[in-house]
From TrEMBL:
Source organism: Pseudorhizobium flavum
Keywords tagged on the record: FAD, Flavoprotein, Oxidoreductase
Gene3D superfamilies linked: D-Amino Acid Oxidase, subunit A, domain 2, FAD/NAD(P)-binding domain
The name this protein goes by in its record: Sarcosine oxidase
Cofactor(s), by name: FAD
Superkingdom to which the source organism belongs: Bacteria
Length: 395
């Protein structure tokens, strides 16, 4: 006989784990289904996730009021999650934006400043001279100015955050199944889920499978999403380099050329015991659509040309990195046409979807998970939660 749950969340990543936690705080009969991180990426033939890392930037300074609001709400709960789980994942290192003086209200930094003003977020604006003198790790172009979010910003450890969410979901009574879901369909007034060769039933199901949402018959129709490959570069730091970079904030650098935009994470210790400074960009093109494409990409070290471009950019911005060993890795970002996440139901009122991080959602994942839980509990989202702006679009 198939096991029956009231609610099933499919996807044990940052959004799915958060949704399971929020559900478990309110109701019994919750299950979270999703495989853990593979031990060997190159031989793994299942699904992957992009939270397999130790650092993601967190900030409230954002040009989109929706993303700014979601980040604020999530950050408000960071310490609660840490204290409840006993797992630390938030480092309050601050966040710095560097870019040219905005020329109009259409520019990202001006829009972000306007949103900050409207929400009461305090951002320190720095002249070019102040930017360089305050952050000596960098050699910024002389025409760039700075926007510094000092408090309640910095970086989170996505692996640790997922562990914390799952620990609290279990404590709340949720069943956590390390399995790969291969089918979701409505049948006879309930939803049937096949995962790990077993069959489960639920009153409602939330599909939070990230870039893999369109695979494995999880949804009745494919979403309009683009799973885009991204390459990240790591600079290995020794004790001497840490004297230079150890106190730097999370940093995002805009220049006139989009291909030179980069984000930079402060030094973080990784599971191999080494400390790395991580840098990434956002210009790679292409789509990953088939399972074999995902497997090949996640099993690689990323794009070698993009790796070299990022290394060159890093050395221009941070000359003290010269001579440090480098490595690279592959990541995937899931983009929607609206630039906002999807949080809504499919044709069935029993199957909902939550995805579309648009390369900025890690910091807001707890709030997105809360919204996913509301979809299952309440059957929809209010305009206070930007519900109409997150309606899923299908092909």
């Amino acid at each position: 006989m198939a096991a029956h749950f009231k609610y099933i969340v499919i996807g044990g990543g940052m959004m799915g784990a958060a949704a399971a936690r929020h559900l478990s705080q309110r109701v019994d009969g919750v299950a979270l289904i999703g495989p853990g991180e593979p031990a060997d990426y190159r031989s793994h033939d299942g699904v992957f996730a992009s939270h397999y890392d130790e650092a993601r930037i967190t900030r409230r300074f954002d040009a989109d009021p929706l993303w700014a609001s979601f980040a604020q709400r999530a950050i408000d709960r960071y310490r609660e999650i840490e204290e409840g789980s006993g797992i630390r994942f938030f480092s309050e290192a601050g966040c710095l934006f560097a870019g040219p003086e905005p020329r109009s209200h259409a520019d990202y930094l001006q829009r972000a400043t306007d949103v900050a003003t409207s929400t009461g977020l305090e951002i320190e604006r720095l002249t070019s001279g102040e930017l360089q003198s305050r952050f000596a790790q960098f050699d910024f172009p002389s025409h760039l100015i700075g926007y510094h979010e000092l408090s309640r910003a910095g970086h989170i450890n996505p692996r640790a955050l997922v562990r914390a969410q799952i620990a609290l979901a279990k404590r709340g009574g949720a069943t956590v199944l390390d399995a790969h879901a291969t089918s979701v369909r409505e049948e006879g007034g309930r939803v049937e889920v096949i995962a790990g060769g077993e069959t489960f039933h639920a009153d409602r199901v939330l599909v939070a499978a990230g870039a893999f949402s369109n695979l494995n018959a999880l949804l009745p129709r494919p979403l309009q999403v683009r799973a885009a490959p991204r390459t990240v570069v790591f600079f290995e730091l020794d004790e001497q380099a840490m004297t230079v970079f150890g106190t730097m904030p999370s940093t995002i650098v805009f220049t006139e050329r989009e291909e030179d935009h980069v984000y930079i994470l402060p030094p973080v210790r990784y599971p191999d015991g080494k400390t790395y400074l991580k840098l990434g960009g956002d210009i790679e093109t292409g789509d990953l659509a088939r399972p074999e494409e995902f497997r090949a990409w996640f099993g690689s070290d990323g794009n070698p040309e993009e790796r070299q471009r990022l290394v060159d950019t890093a050395l221009q911005l941070m000359p003290a990195l010269k001579g440090r060993p480098t490595s690279s890795a592959a990541c995937v970002a899931t983009f929607t046409p609206t630039g906002r996440p999807y949080a809504g139901f499919v044709e069935s009122s029993r199957i909902a979807v939550l995805t579309g991080g648009n390369f900025v959602a890690a910091k807001s994942s707890d709030e997105l998970g809360r919204l996913g839980s509301f979809l299952l509990l309440e059957g929809g989202l209010s305009e206070d939660d930007y519900g109409s702006l997150m309606t899923p679009l299908f092909r």
